[in-house]
Backbone:
Protein backbone atom coordinates (compact mmCIF):
# COMPACT_ATOMS: atom_id res chain seq x y z
CA UNK A 1 0.00 0.00 0.00
CA UNK A 2 1.44 3.30 -1.12
CA UNK A 3 0.67 6.17 1.28
CA UNK A 4 1.06 9.62 -0.30
CA UNK A 5 1.15 12.48 2.19
CA UNK A 6 -0.52 15.74 1.16
CA UNK A 7 -0.51 19.00 3.07
CA UNK A 8 -4.17 19.86 2.89
CA UNK A 9 -7.35 19.29 0.88
CA UNK A 10 -6.22 21.13 -2.24
CA UNK A 11 -2.82 19.39 -2.19
CA UNK A 12 -4.62 16.03 -1.83
CA UNK A 13 -6.86 16.93 -4.78
CA UNK A 14 -3.89 17.89 -6.97
CA UNK A 15 -1.87 14.79 -6.06
CA UNK A 16 -4.85 12.54 -6.79
CA UNK A 17 -5.41 14.42 -10.07
CA UNK A 18 -1.77 13.71 -10.97
CA UNK A 19 -2.43 9.98 -10.59
CA UNK A 20 -5.62 10.05 -12.66
CA UNK A 21 -3.94 12.27 -15.28
CA UNK A 22 -1.03 9.85 -15.58
CA UNK A 23 -3.50 6.98 -16.02
CA UNK A 24 -5.40 8.79 -18.79
CA UNK A 25 -2.25 10.02 -20.54
CA UNK A 26 -0.59 6.60 -20.51
CA UNK A 27 -3.81 4.76 -21.46
CA UNK A 28 -6.19 7.16 -23.26
CA UNK A 29 -9.00 4.56 -23.34
CA UNK A 30 -8.83 3.94 -19.59
CA UNK A 31 -11.85 2.75 -17.66
CA UNK A 32 -12.10 4.92 -14.56
CA UNK A 33 -14.14 3.84 -11.56
CA UNK A 34 -15.54 6.98 -9.93
CA UNK A 35 -16.97 8.01 -6.57
CA UNK A 36 -19.26 10.77 -5.32
CA UNK A 37 -19.18 12.50 -1.92
CA UNK A 38 -17.41 15.60 -0.71
CA UNK A 39 -13.86 14.21 -0.84
CA UNK A 40 -13.52 14.00 -4.67
CA UNK A 41 -15.05 17.41 -5.46
CA UNK A 42 -11.68 19.18 -5.46
CA UNK A 43 -10.12 16.40 -7.54
CA UNK A 44 -12.91 16.66 -10.14
CA UNK A 45 -12.49 20.46 -10.27
CA UNK A 46 -8.77 19.92 -10.87
CA UNK A 47 -9.44 17.42 -13.70
CA UNK A 48 -11.81 19.94 -15.31
CA UNK A 49 -9.10 22.62 -15.07
CA UNK A 50 -6.56 20.33 -16.74
CA UNK A 51 -9.04 19.45 -19.49
CA UNK A 52 -9.75 23.15 -20.09
CA UNK A 53 -6.05 23.89 -20.38
CA UNK A 54 -5.68 21.08 -22.96
CA UNK A 55 -3.57 18.90 -20.68
CA UNK A 56 -6.13 16.09 -20.52
CA UNK A 57 -8.34 14.43 -23.10
CA UNK A 58 -11.25 12.24 -21.98
CA UNK A 59 -12.58 11.47 -25.48
CA UNK A 60 -11.64 7.77 -25.26
CA UNK A 61 -12.16 7.35 -21.51
CA UNK A 62 -15.06 5.35 -20.04
CA UNK A 63 -16.30 5.59 -16.48
CA UNK A 64 -18.29 3.47 -14.06
CA UNK A 65 -19.59 4.77 -10.77
CA UNK A 66 -19.67 2.96 -7.47
CA UNK A 67 -23.26 3.52 -6.49
CA UNK A 68 -26.67 5.16 -6.90
CA UNK A 69 -29.80 5.60 -4.80
CA UNK A 70 -32.62 3.25 -5.81
CA UNK A 71 -35.62 5.26 -6.99
CA UNK A 72 -33.87 8.55 -7.82
CA UNK A 73 -33.93 9.88 -11.37
CA UNK A 74 -30.86 11.41 -13.06
CA UNK A 75 -32.60 14.81 -12.81
CA UNK A 76 -32.98 14.57 -9.03
CA UNK A 77 -30.28 16.81 -7.58
CA UNK A 78 -29.60 14.23 -4.84
CA UNK A 79 -28.89 11.44 -7.30
CA UNK A 80 -25.31 10.39 -7.89
CA UNK A 81 -25.87 10.64 -11.66
CA UNK A 82 -26.78 14.31 -11.17
CA UNK A 83 -23.66 14.79 -9.01
CA UNK A 84 -21.40 13.29 -11.67
CA UNK A 85 -22.95 15.33 -14.48
CA UNK A 86 -22.68 18.63 -12.63
CA UNK A 87 -19.32 18.07 -10.90
CA UNK A 88 -17.46 16.43 -13.81
CA UNK A 89 -19.07 14.98 -16.93
CA UNK A 90 -20.77 18.18 -18.19
CA UNK A 91 -17.41 20.00 -18.11
CA UNK A 92 -15.12 17.52 -19.91
CA UNK A 93 -15.19 15.72 -23.26
CA UNK A 94 -16.10 12.27 -21.96
CA UNK A 95 -18.70 10.60 -24.24
CA UNK A 96 -22.07 10.53 -22.44
CA UNK A 97 -22.67 6.95 -23.58
CA UNK A 98 -19.36 5.91 -22.01
CA UNK A 99 -20.41 6.94 -18.48
CA UNK A 100 -22.10 4.26 -16.39
CA UNK A 101 -23.87 4.91 -13.10
CA UNK A 102 -26.21 2.22 -11.69
CA UNK A 103 -29.73 2.94 -12.96
CA UNK A 104 -31.64 4.31 -9.96
CA UNK A 105 -34.91 4.16 -11.90
CA UNK A 106 -34.68 0.44 -12.65
CA UNK A 107 -37.16 -1.00 -10.14
CA UNK A 108 -35.92 -4.55 -10.62
CA UNK A 109 -32.93 -4.56 -8.27
CA UNK A 110 -31.42 -7.77 -9.62
CA UNK A 111 -31.57 -6.38 -13.16
CA UNK A 112 -30.09 -2.99 -12.18
CA UNK A 113 -27.18 -4.73 -10.46
CA UNK A 114 -26.48 -7.33 -13.14
CA UNK A 115 -26.54 -4.60 -15.81
CA UNK A 116 -23.92 -2.62 -13.92
CA UNK A 117 -21.69 -5.68 -13.62
CA UNK A 118 -22.24 -6.38 -17.31
CA UNK A 119 -21.26 -2.82 -18.24
CA UNK A 120 -18.00 -3.23 -16.31
CA UNK A 121 -17.33 -6.59 -17.95
CA UNK A 122 -18.07 -5.23 -21.43
CA UNK A 123 -15.56 -2.44 -20.84
CA UNK A 124 -12.91 -5.04 -20.00
CA UNK A 125 -12.81 -4.20 -16.28
CA UNK A 126 -11.81 -1.13 -14.32
CA UNK A 127 -8.27 0.22 -14.76
CA UNK A 128 -8.30 2.66 -11.85
CA UNK A 129 -10.96 2.79 -9.14
CA UNK A 130 -11.29 5.96 -7.09
CA UNK A 131 -12.67 5.55 -3.56
CA UNK A 132 -13.62 7.80 -0.68
CA UNK A 133 -13.78 6.32 2.81
CA UNK A 134 -16.80 6.43 5.11
CA UNK A 135 -16.27 7.27 8.79
CA UNK A 136 -17.25 3.69 9.61
CA UNK A 137 -14.89 2.23 7.00
CA UNK A 138 -17.48 1.79 4.26
CA UNK A 139 -16.50 1.89 0.59
CA UNK A 140 -19.26 2.47 -1.92
CA UNK A 141 -22.35 1.55 0.12
CA UNK A 142 -20.64 -1.55 1.54
CA UNK A 143 -21.32 -1.01 5.23
CA UNK A 144 -19.75 -2.92 8.15
CA UNK A 145 -21.22 -6.44 8.05
CA UNK A 146 -20.47 -10.01 9.14
CA UNK A 147 -19.23 -10.90 5.61
CA UNK A 148 -17.80 -9.03 2.63
CA UNK A 149 -20.49 -8.42 -0.01
CA UNK A 150 -19.45 -9.68 -3.42
CA UNK A 151 -20.70 -7.98 -6.57
CA UNK A 152 -23.06 -5.10 -7.35
CA UNK A 153 -26.08 -5.47 -5.07
CA UNK A 154 -28.96 -3.58 -3.49
CA UNK A 155 -28.49 -2.37 0.09
CA UNK A 156 -30.96 -1.15 2.69
CA UNK A 157 -29.72 2.17 4.02
CA UNK A 158 -29.30 2.38 7.76
CA UNK A 159 -31.78 4.53 9.68
CA UNK A 160 -29.01 6.98 10.54
CA UNK A 161 -28.16 7.45 6.84
CA UNK A 162 -31.85 7.94 6.00
CA UNK A 163 -32.20 10.47 8.83
CA UNK A 164 -29.05 12.30 7.74
CA UNK A 165 -30.31 12.50 4.14
CA UNK A 166 -33.80 13.69 5.10
CA UNK A 167 -32.76 17.35 5.13
CA UNK A 168 -32.06 17.26 1.39
CA UNK A 169 -35.59 16.16 0.46
CA UNK A 170 -38.96 17.93 0.38
CA UNK A 171 -40.66 15.20 2.37
CA UNK A 172 -39.77 12.10 4.34
CA UNK A 173 -41.35 9.83 1.69
CA UNK A 174 -38.91 11.12 -0.93
CA UNK A 175 -35.83 9.99 1.01
CA UNK A 176 -34.36 6.86 -0.60
CA UNK A 177 -34.21 3.82 1.66
CA UNK A 178 -32.10 1.65 -0.64
CA UNK A 179 -29.13 1.98 -2.96
CA UNK A 180 -27.34 -0.03 -5.63
CA UNK A 181 -23.63 -0.41 -5.00
CA UNK A 182 -20.65 -2.19 -6.47
CA UNK A 183 -19.66 -5.00 -4.13
CA UNK A 184 -16.30 -5.64 -2.53
CA UNK A 185 -15.40 -8.19 -5.18
CA UNK A 186 -16.24 -5.71 -7.97
CA UNK A 187 -14.00 -3.12 -6.33
CA UNK A 188 -11.19 -5.61 -5.66
CA UNK A 189 -11.15 -6.64 -9.33
CA UNK A 190 -10.04 -3.12 -10.39
CA UNK A 191 -6.45 -3.18 -11.60
CA UNK A 192 -5.47 -0.17 -9.47
CA UNK A 193 -7.18 1.54 -6.57
CA UNK A 194 -6.82 5.16 -5.48
CA UNK A 195 -8.27 6.14 -2.10
CA UNK A 196 -8.53 9.79 -1.09
CA UNK A 197 -9.07 10.95 2.48
CA UNK A 198 -9.00 14.30 4.18
CA UNK A 199 -9.84 15.81 7.53
CA UNK A 200 -9.37 14.93 11.15
CA UNK A 201 -12.69 13.05 11.31
CA UNK A 202 -11.16 10.36 9.06
CA UNK A 203 -7.92 9.89 11.07
CA UNK A 204 -9.12 6.98 13.25
CA UNK A 205 -10.71 5.04 10.42
CA UNK A 206 -7.71 5.54 8.10
CA UNK A 207 -5.40 3.97 10.71
CA UNK A 208 -7.87 1.16 11.41
CA UNK A 209 -8.68 0.38 7.76
CA UNK A 210 -5.15 0.35 6.41
CA UNK A 211 -3.10 -0.77 9.43
CA UNK A 212 -5.61 -2.79 11.50
CA UNK A 213 -6.92 -6.32 11.01
CA UNK A 214 -8.72 -7.20 7.77
CA UNK A 215 -12.37 -7.66 8.69
CA UNK A 216 -15.77 -7.10 7.03
CA UNK A 217 -16.61 -4.96 10.07
CA UNK A 218 -14.21 -2.43 8.48
CA UNK A 219 -15.00 -2.97 4.77
CA UNK A 220 -12.06 -0.86 3.48
CA UNK A 221 -9.61 -3.10 5.35
CA UNK A 222 -9.91 -5.63 2.49
CA UNK A 223 -7.91 -3.16 0.37
CA UNK A 224 -4.81 -4.33 2.26
CA UNK A 225 -5.12 -7.53 0.18
CA UNK A 226 -5.12 -5.66 -3.15
CA UNK A 227 -1.75 -5.56 -4.96
CA UNK A 228 -1.96 -1.94 -6.21
CA UNK A 229 -3.50 0.55 -3.79
CA UNK A 230 -2.48 4.18 -3.35
CA UNK A 231 -3.93 6.26 -0.53
CA UNK A 232 -3.60 10.03 -0.81
CA UNK A 233 -4.38 11.78 2.45
CA UNK A 234 -3.91 15.17 4.00
CA UNK A 235 -2.02 15.70 7.26
CA UNK A 236 -5.16 15.59 9.38
CA UNK A 237 -6.41 12.29 7.93
CA UNK A 238 -2.93 10.75 8.28
CA UNK A 239 -2.37 12.08 11.80
CA UNK A 240 -2.92 8.69 13.50
CA UNK A 241 -0.88 6.44 11.23
CA UNK A 242 1.81 4.21 12.72
CA UNK A 243 5.32 5.76 12.61
CA UNK A 244 7.00 5.66 9.17
CA UNK A 245 3.77 4.87 7.29
C1 LIG B 1 -19.57 7.70 -2.82
C2 LIG B 1 -19.41 6.57 -1.92
C3 LIG B 1 -19.10 6.69 -0.46
C4 LIG B 1 -18.19 7.86 -0.10
C5 LIG B 1 -17.92 7.90 1.41
C6 LIG B 1 -17.10 9.12 1.80
O1 LIG B 1 -19.87 7.29 -4.13
O2 LIG B 1 -19.55 5.50 -2.39
O3 LIG B 1 -18.56 5.49 -0.02
O4 LIG B 1 -16.97 7.73 -0.79
O5 LIG B 1 -19.14 7.94 2.09
O6 LIG B 1 -17.87 10.26 1.60
P1 LIG B 1 -17.24 11.72 1.72
O7 LIG B 1 -16.28 11.87 0.58
O8 LIG B 1 -18.43 12.64 1.55
O9 LIG B 1 -16.58 11.80 3.05
Residues:
Amino acid sequence: MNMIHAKDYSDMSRKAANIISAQVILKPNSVLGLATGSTPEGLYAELIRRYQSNDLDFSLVSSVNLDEYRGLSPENDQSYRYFMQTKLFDHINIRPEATFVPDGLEPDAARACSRHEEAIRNLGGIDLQLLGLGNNGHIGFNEPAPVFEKETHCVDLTQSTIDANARFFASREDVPTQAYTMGIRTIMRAKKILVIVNGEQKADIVAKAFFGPVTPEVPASILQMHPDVTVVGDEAAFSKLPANA
User: Anything to note?
Assistant: Helices lie at 9-26, 41-52, 80-87, 109-122, 159-165, 184-188, 203-211. The chain has a mean pLDDT of 96.
